[in-house]
Amino acid sequence: MYLPKEKEIIQIKSYKHDGSLHRTWKKTVVLKSTENVIIGGNDHTLVVESDGRKWVTREPAICYFHSEYWFNVISMIREDGIYHYCNLGTPFASDEEAVKYIDYDLDIKVFPDGRFHLLDEGEYEQHRKQMKYPDAIDRILRHNVDVLSHWILDKKGPFSKDYIDIWYEKYKEYC
Q: I need a surface site. Which of 28, 116, 123, 132 has the fewest CB within 10 A?
């Protein structure tokens, strides 16, 4: 597997279970890259949806991908605090083109005060039937919802107090 280098500009691509492209973030700066973790930063980056719609992110974000966990975390830095948007999906893969993962619809949104909600369960069930997600995938995803919930409650990894300060400063240094 190709690992991007620190300071390299990469794309992030999410796919659906059936292999179709879901969404592409055009420019993210790599802040850390190991076999297990990729951390990137972006701000006002172009996002292209599978139907061709385009939009630009509104605030700086720090992106966390892991090679063992079935989730990734986008931490958005807003005036009223840090919002985390957690995508349940496969561990990342990377090549010269992009950091890639399969998005499995379920998301957890974490608010600055620590409250969090599981989102898109209806969409998950619809796609689970439509794309025939195996039962093993469902068990893995449900387990990772639990793991992610514990990380949020315990303020672990991307939810820790210093995480944003450290990685946002590095992002500003690189840009």
A: 132
